[in-house]
């Protein structure tokens, strides 16, 4: 799937896990190689500094270098950094950093230091849109406690602040509301375990977790789903769902990194406060990953 020239957020953009060395320092060389490997295996681009990339526990210097590393590896048109921060001014600075590094778009959570009201949300997106780089909203009411409901997204788009939304609420009914309210707003699948449902509802892209470990089969799943090949999509979705559902669990970073380790990718440890998986969690993820490998999905 070719990257869309004027809508670079379309297709499969992988929210990249971040390789850390034994001292929990960022391994930029392995990260660059991972970004290249994802594109070589059919993914359209990457989303560095998302929650899967542990952006909250990076220093500003690390966070900036992660973006620069991705751009150097695969080109800025394929890189959509997360620019979330507690303050709107800080988010705007991250958007400016992404713009200056050559990125084509950024992904932005609503204010997440407190339960922001609608006026605060609008002001936040207005400020970051002022950086002059297209913004994809990220709706994650589970973690942020701020819900970008379809009516609010329509208003944000109408004001020119956002061009698309990564939808992580899990409520697939919203796809149809959005299509009615604001058909020009691109809907991106935001949780791996509702991929098929949102693809059938008209999603234009997928900000994805599990392609970090299994890019070829997950890209095939996405292509079949958006292309209407339900026989192929349903079979792959059923095979992969025991893993995909971990993308919506609290332990999603540890889970995806473990699957990466199993298939020979640079997964590894997480920075605190994330702790290792419980033995029963590790066993379940290991079994599901090994089953996917045995089925030829790696």
From TrEMBL:
Q: What is this protein called?
A: Dihydrodipicolinate synthase family protein
Q: Which CDD domains match?
A: DHDPS-like
Q: What keywords sit in the KW lines?
A: Lyase
Q: Which family does it belong to?
A: Belongs to the DapA family.
Q: Which PANTHER family match?
A: DIHYDRODIPICOLINATE SYNTHASE
Q: Superkingdom of this entry's organism?
A: Bacteria
Recorded hits in Gene3D superfamilies, A to Z, give:
Aldolase class I
The organism that produces this protein has a lineage beginning with: Bacteria, Bacillati, Actinomycetota, Actinomycetes, Kitasatosporales
Q: Record's InterPro entries?
A: Aldolase_TIM, DapA-like
Q: What Pfam families would the database entry show?
A: DHDPS (PF00701)
